[in-house]
């Protein structure tokens, strides 16, 4: 099997690439840049291009059996600043990709949607896949629209899409721009001796998944003969204050490190609690998250320390 891994040089994509290689699956990465934190992988083919360029994508699809789509030009907190750019960069390119898959008879796609945004403000706890979709950000609205186009292609043309609604992934190789990924951002800022800010009182609860567990799920989904939407989280909730306590514990013995977050007013788009029900993915893919928050934060801290020293 050969897979086109779109966005394979990103945070999640880099781990999916590792996992595919370990499974002996041939990988062609399509991305507009190389990985920022490590050299290209020896057994992986790299095609540099832009998903909005139909000709480049079409060429990159030659000879592949399946697609994993992990490219996104937006994150929840910035998508509302320019919804038109969000639609152009993400929705239109995804719809074109589906058309090209139909034309080239590639049937299988794994797509990373967002369990933190497609449900809006959840009315159940945990949130199962059947929960109504009421996104309150452009990012979530575009994710739902892409999911719907995939369903349409499934009904009309027999596409086999697997949508994974990811919760909050964290782990090595997460960028540290500070706009997404509280664990990575806080660890990076702490390693550099920079202050850490918390929006709100730290009581909001999220479902954090170690990135390698999410990558394993992507590959399990790819190699299973099914289609549909699946929550992709740890199934457990942790508050921001829980994360703060764990980061304090993991950094406590580091000389010169002072982890002392400053609390700022909450943000209107942060929903109070989102924890995903992952029983469907556990059942259909015989998959389960393996790395708990304590171990995951320790591994991430080790990576951040090494990488920030080399910077
Ligand atoms: N990280 C999260 O917290 C999170 C949570 C839920 C869902 N997701 C989804 O998972 C997917 C991967 O996220 P990530 O955190 O790895 O993001 P990332 O930004 O680290 O990686 C995305 C990759 O896609 C590439 N890319 C973006 N636009 C492109 C384009 N037009 N053409 C070619 N390449 C392009 C980027 O260069 C980057 O390497 C995205 O769809 C994202 O929406 C992420």
TrEMBL record:
InterPro entries: Epimerase_deHydtase, NAD(P)-bd_dom_sf. Residues 3-233 form the NAD-dependent epimerase/dehydratase domain. It holds the Pfam family Epimerase. Pathway: Carbohydrate metabolism; galactose metabolism. PANTHER family: UDP-ARABINOSE 4-EPIMERASE 1, UDP-GLUCOSE 4-EPIMERASE. Belongs to the NAD(P)-dependent epimerase/dehydratase family. This is UDP-glucose 4-epimerase.
């Amino acid at each position: 099997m050969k897979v086109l891994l779109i966005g394979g040089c990103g945070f999640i994509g880099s781990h999916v690439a590792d996992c595919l290689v370990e499974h002996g699956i041939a990988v062609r990465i399509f991305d507009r840049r190389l990985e920022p934190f490590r050299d290209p992988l020896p057994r992986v083919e790299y095609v540099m291009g832009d998903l909005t360029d139909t000709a480049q994508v079409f060429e990159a699809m030659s000879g592949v059996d399946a697609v994993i789509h992990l490219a996104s030009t937006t994150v929840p907190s910035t998508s509302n600043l320019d919804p038109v750019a969000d639609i152009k960069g993400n929705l239109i390119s995804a719809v074109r990709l589906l058309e090209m898959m139909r034309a080239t008879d590639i049937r299988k796609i794994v797509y990373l949607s967002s369990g933190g945004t497609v449900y809006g403000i959840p009315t159940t706890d945990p949130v199962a896949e059947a929960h109504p979709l009421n996104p309150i950000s452009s990012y979530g609205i575009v994710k739902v629209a892409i999911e719907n186009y995939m369903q349409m292609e499934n009904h009309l043309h027999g596409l086999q899409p697997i949508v994974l609604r990811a919760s909050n992934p964290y782990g090595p190789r997460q960028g540290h721009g500070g706009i997404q990924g509280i664990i990575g951002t806080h660890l990076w800022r702490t390693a550099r001796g920079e202050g850490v800010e918390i929006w709100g009182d730290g009581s909001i609860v999220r479902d954090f998944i170690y990135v390698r567990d999410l990558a394993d799920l992507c590959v399990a989904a790819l190699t299973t003969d099914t289609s549909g939407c699946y929550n992709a989280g740890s199934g457990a909730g942790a508050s921001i204050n829980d994360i703060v306590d764990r980061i304090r514990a993991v950094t406590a013995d580091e000389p010169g490190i002072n982890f002392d977050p400053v609390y700022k007013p909450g943000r209107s788009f942060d929903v109070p609690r989102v924890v995903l029900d992952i029983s469907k993915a556990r059942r259909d893919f015989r998959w389960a998250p393996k790395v708990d928050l304590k171990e995951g934060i320790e591994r991430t801290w080790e990576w951040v320390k090494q990488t920030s020293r080399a910077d």
